[in-house]
Design a protein that fits this description.
The protein has one domain. Helices cover 79% and strands 0% of the residues. α5 packs across α9, α6 runs antiparallel to α7 and α7 packs across α8. The longest helix is centred in the C-terminal third of the chain and has 53 residues. The radius of gyration is 17 Å and the shape is globular. It is a multi-pass membrane protein. It comes from Uliginosibacterium sediminicola. Keywords: Cell membrane, Membrane, Transmembrane, Transmembrane helix, Transport. This is Probable membrane transporter protein.
Length: 256
């Protein structure tokens, strides 16, 4: 086993846990890939990350689907539109610098964080309301926007999805987290549809990392089911603060 695996496999395992529970595992895995595979291009690192991550997402989708009743019509429509949005995002990424969008994302993330922080009951109860045609339209728009973000910038997609499923459809955090996994699977699949044919995946790293991610996903799903909404809410706030700090620092450095 090469020395790189001694770091990348544990990172992939932890990423699988976080992605399964709340999303945002890319905050760990992506910097790890950049630090270890120093000669690789950003596109190669993205392709390796997406292939490793999609294995964990597929596992968590299966785990949640056998335990929670999901609104499949809404979720699959949102995932399909996210697939299209992510394809557009990946295409634009090679033309427009992502640094242009990061200050906007920082503001949106800050609003999202403050909103959740000062509403302790946010996401603790599921409204169990019937999905309407208006909800399907909202899901379509949500998928396109989040898919584009994932293809264009990337980190924190799962956290944004989690917040929006709670805010827009009045799900609790547990159900929202399960729905977010399906949509995140669609965005990762779209990125791979662009990156795999271009030869931008290191399979000798991505496949073992994917297996580690599957094992982490099994652990993360069980933790989420046992911990419930309050545990997921706390983890969501921690990840949102971390992502906000990361993007704010990157935006600040870009202006210097």
């Amino acid at each position: 086993m090469s020395p790189e695996f001694l770091i990348l496999l544990p990172l992939a395992f932890v990423t699988g846990i976080i992605n399964a529970a709340v999303g945002g595992g890319g905050l760990i895995q992506v910097p790890g890939l950049y630090a270890i595979l120093t000669t690789a291009s950003p596109a190669q690192l993205m392709g390796t990350d997406k292939l490793a991550s999609i294995c964990g997402h597929a596992t968590s989708v299966h785990q949640y689907a056998t335990r929670i009743a999901l609104p499949w019509r809404l979720v699959l429509l949102t995932a399909a539109s996210a697939f299209i949005g992510a394809l557009a995002g990946v295409s634009v990424m090679s033309i427009v610098p992502t640094s242009w969008m990061k200050p906007v994302v920082v503001v949106i993330l800050a609003v999202m964080l403050v909103y959740t922080w000062f509403r302790p009951q946010f996401g603790t109860q599921d409204a169990h309301k019937e999905i309407t045609r208006g909800d399907l339209y909202k899901g379509l728009a949500l998928g396109l926007a989040i898919g584009f973000y994932d293809g264009f910038i990337g980190p924190g997609t799962g956290s944004f999805l989690l917040f929006l499923f709670v805010r827009c459809f009045h799900f609790d955090f547990l159900r929202a987290s399960a729905c977010a996994k399906v949509v995140n699977f669609g965005t990762n699949l779209a990125a791979l549809a662009f990156l795999v044919p271009a030869g931008m995946v290191f399979y000798h790293f991505a496949i073992p990392m994917g297996i580690a991610g599957i094992l982490g996903s099994l652990v993360g799903t069980r933790l989420a089911m046992r911990g419930g909404n309050h545990w997921i809410r706390r983890l969501f706030l921690i990840l949102a603060i971390t992502l906000l700090a990361k993007l704010a620092w990157e935006s600040f450095r870009a202006w210097m």
